[in-house]
Amino acid sequence: MGKWYQKDVKQVEELLQVKVNKGLSERQVTERRKRFGSNILQTEKKQSKWLLFLRQFQDFMVLILLAATLIAGMLGEFIDAIAIMVIVLLNGCIGFYQEQKAEKSMDKLKNLAAPIANILREGEWEKRPSQEVVIGDVIKINRGDRIPADIRIIKSDSLEIEESALTGESIPVLKQILPIVEDGLDAPDQVNMGFKGTMVTRGSGIGIVVHTGMETMMGKIASLMAGTKKLVTPLERKLAELGKILIFVALSLTILVVGVGIYQGHPVYHMFLAGVSLAVAAIPEGLPAIVTVALSLGVQRMIRRKAIVRQLSAVETLGTTSIICSDKTGTMTENKMTVKEIYLNGRYIQVSGDGYDMNGNFYLENKKLDEKHPNLKSMLLYGMLCNHASLTVKKGKYSVEGDPTDGALLVAARKLGLSHNYDQKFQIIQEIPFDSNRKRMSIVIEDENQMRFLITKGAPDVLLPRFSNHYTENGRRPFDLLEKNKLEDAVNQMADKAYRTIAIGMKPLSRTESLETTILEKDLTFIGVYGIIDPPRKEVKQAIQDCKEAGIKTVMITGDHVKTAAAIANDLNMMPEDGLVIEGRELNGMSSSDLTDIIEDVYVFARVTPEHKLKIVEAFQEKGHIVAMTGDGVNDAPAIKASDIGISMGITGTDVTKEASSLILMDDNFATIKNAIQEGRNIYENIRKFIRYLLSSNVGEILVMLFAMLMAMPLPLVPVQILWVNLVTDGLPAMALGLDQPEEDVMKRPPRSPRERIFSRGLGFKIISRGFLIGVVTLIGFMVVYQNNESNLEYARTVAFTTLVMAQLIHVFDCRSENSIFDRNPFENIYLIIAVLSSLLLMLITIYWEPLQPIFQTTYLSLYDWLLIIGLSAIPTVVFGLSKK
To answer: Are residues 600 and 495 in the same domain?
Structure first.
């Protein structure tokens, strides 16, 4: 279809068979998706399942095992060869399943974190994931949005798009809607086009999708890319370092055991196989896979708790967070703005009704007002016109599309009987969009009588110097010093009630008057002030208290008036008596070092711009804090990126902010941040739990063999038994530990230091001490039986094998607590119970099922044997459970 920028809107409609006021039908959408595919960029080709399965056998120790299998077969030891082969295959299947599960989890995350597109379908605007966009879709774009596909722009309200992702130019491009005659233009010169992946930095617009997926400009660039590198989290790096240490230890021990065994006269082949088995025992091959699964399942739990993790490294960092810098509106509050009071004609008017309920009335000193009350209708009408929000109704309930404050003004207008039909009587000639630095929005309107006027709404302190006149019940009067003082008092009184205040003014314009922005917003006539309240979320107060107990300080950052912010902070019990509140203008006068000096005492930053957020983050980081920062606007992105944990809003957040963040709140709720931190701490603790379990079990396996060698005794375990324990029976309980619920005090501990090592907080001692005792009791079990019955080595080895497995299965419950096994209910983790029972069943099968007895060199055990085994295997856990060390 060629050069879309050369075609006018009618031609685009005809070629794509779409009406700009209706959009596509569902039938058209289905047909086009079948024809053109989904609107996604093809990334690196996924490995086939066969290659993924074969990759499980690339590990160095697994290759040694396979070599040992080959040697065993060549020496005629077919039972050993088959047994090792089956165990290796079983381990490969478990690893394959784990990787598949992790991959599916990450795919699920990508879909959840996909940008949202505002699409017109069958006359109704709908929010859909961007991958559902098809050619011919009519889409709406606003400031902060990422464009979901290549579009031909058909409506532009001061629309500017930053296209550096394509062109390298960071200066935004002002867009137009007229066709361009020139031929052969590059993307930067196609000023009536919007391209996938670029960002809207100003204004709004509507466009028709002309290319999707790999056919977009971004898709053509993506097709040139060879692939992407997998990011490694700090935790994965630590575990990789641990793996190197374990390999060194394993090889040293293997050489030692093999050397001692040969010196004592054991056959070289048996010692080689025993050495390989011990090396496998020392290196927990399942650890990387279990860590991946633990992270993956933890991330899925976070999704169920309304938090999407975009970067796995964030899971580890969450546990170290010491400061949460949070937006107020929508995060700590309901984000259902309601006009409760109006300052008009120098008097206070009360407004009834809450939320988005259209039922409500206006009262002056308990007297009900109607639209005849002086200036009331004008004020509400201007608030409705200078507005980007819209009201939608589903199942009888209204909701706001757009800014909640704008939505509150719409609802207030509806309560007086003003409907959206009034919009049709006015034409917007020009708009000066809201900007976080300007803190105001203006529009030039022309009514049905062709009379023009300017409407401006914004922060009262920003508009105050711009007022020259004001409306009274008796008409327009000069806005003198007395009236200015009255307005300031009114704003302060409203702020003391935690109301957000929005002032509104107007200015009549002649048709010949200049529309230059710098001139327009001067000499305004003050009309009134809206007092809007956004009540705190019910669950936030407790969440802030939980964070306080966890050693995490909560800081409120808001653009609202200082008194409003302080009132909400006090309501939430955020601030101590000596806590400081700082305004943006104070921040402007502070150097970075000045702010760093007092930052620890500040709990509320009010009247701040997004630029201030970066300064705040850096000041906290200078003090050594790990900072989580929330945001939703485009200008929040630098602060979010600079913070240790960037948190974006899933509902109100722009795509720019979401991309810069590590965590997305699906419900924009502060309590979800607390839940995510709790989950992040728990994931890290669970990883420590199964490292403790796996390594202490492996230490026990190594020591029982080493001690027996040094005592010139027969090997207590044959290689196939060691492999079975390490690769099969250890794996299931370890994985179940990754699903463990948090300990009761997980949010009562101080934040973990980012420099903390895996083995800190006594973990190294616990691994060695528990492992030592597991090895000792296993050896005692072997010695007791062997000394009484030296002729039946198989019997003694069965007791040793069973004691080792039982000691590990009892020890796994001890690993659930930092203190003692007796501190936690063993039945809390049903997955662990199932895993332990499964491992127990597998062990019983190897002991009592006759076809497996010659393979694993086991024999039947009596009741007396079991009493001995259970008594010995409980010793490590009971001893350290009582000592709580």
So the answer is: no
CATH number of the domain residue 183 falls in = 2.70.150.10
List the catalytic residue out of 137, 145, 150, 327.
327
CA distance 670 to 328: 9
DSSP string, 263-299: HTT--HHHHHHHHHHHHHHHS-THHHHHHHHHHHHHH
Distance CA 578, CA 558 (A): 20
Among 600, 599, 537, smallest CA distance to 572 is for 537
User: What residues make up the domain containing 632?
Assistant: 320-333+537-667
Give the pLDDT band (50/70/90) at residue 168.
low
Does 126 share its domain with 246?
no
- Distance of CA 873 to CAs 520, 592, 689, 736, 758, Å? 85, 60, 20, 21, 27
pLDDT in tens, 11-50: 999 999 999 889 999 999 999 999 988 888 765 555 667 7
Q: Which of 510, 533, 556 is the last residue of a domain?
A: 533
Q: Are 259 and 155 in a shared domain?
A: no
Let me know whether 520 and 579 are in one domain: no
Task: Give the separation between CA 172 and CA 725, rounded to whole angstroms.
Answer: 63
Decide if pLDDT at 344 tops 90: yes
For residue range 750-764, what is the model confidence (pLDDT) as tens digits?
998 877 877 888 888
For residue 66, being part of any structural domain is answered with: no
Q: Do 136 and 209 contact (CB within 8 A), yes or no? A: yes
Our CA angle for 91, 94, 96, nearest 5°, is 110
Per DSSP, helices labelled H in 643-669 are: 655-660
For the chain, the maximum distance between any two Cα atoms, rounded to a whole number of angstroms, is 116
Q: Which residues contact 412 (CB under 8 A, 6 or more apart)?
A: 339, 342, 351, 360, 380, 383, 530
Q: How far apart are CA 619 and CA 631, in angstroms?
A: 18
pLDDT tens digits for range 255-286: 777 788 788 777 777 777 667 666 666 666 55
Q: Are 442 and 456 in contact (CB under 8 A)?
A: yes
Q: Quote the distance between the C-alpha of residue 260 and its chain's center.
A: 53
Q: What is the pLDDT of residues 288-332, one digit of tens each?
A: 666 766 777 777 788 888 888 876 667 778 888 999 999 887 788
Task: Render 463-478 in DSSP notation, one character per residue.
Answer: HGGGEEEEEETTEEEE
**Res 2 pLDDT > 60:** no
Position 95 scores a pLDDT of 61
- What lies within 8 Å, CB to CB, of 750 at 6+ separation is 550, 551
Q: What is the pTM of this model?
A: 0.67
CB-CB contact of 820 with 809 (8 Å): no
- For the question of residue 327 being annotated catalytic, the response is yes
Residue 97 placed within a domain: no
Assign 3-class secondary structure to 224-254.
CCCCCCCCCCHHHHHHHHHHHHHHHHHHHHH
Give DSSP secondary structure letters for 374-423. Answer: TTHHHHHHHHHHS---EEEEETTEEEEES-HHHHHHHHHHHHTT--GGGG
Write out pLDDT tens, residues 515-556.
877 788 889 999 999 999 887 888 999 999 999 999 999 999
158: left (phi over 0), alpha (psi -120 to 50) or beta: left
Check whether residue 266 and residue 327 sit in a common domain.
no
How much of the chain, in percent, has pLDDT values that exceed 90?
36
Residue 111 has pLDDT above 50, yes or no: no
Which amino acid, residue 205? G
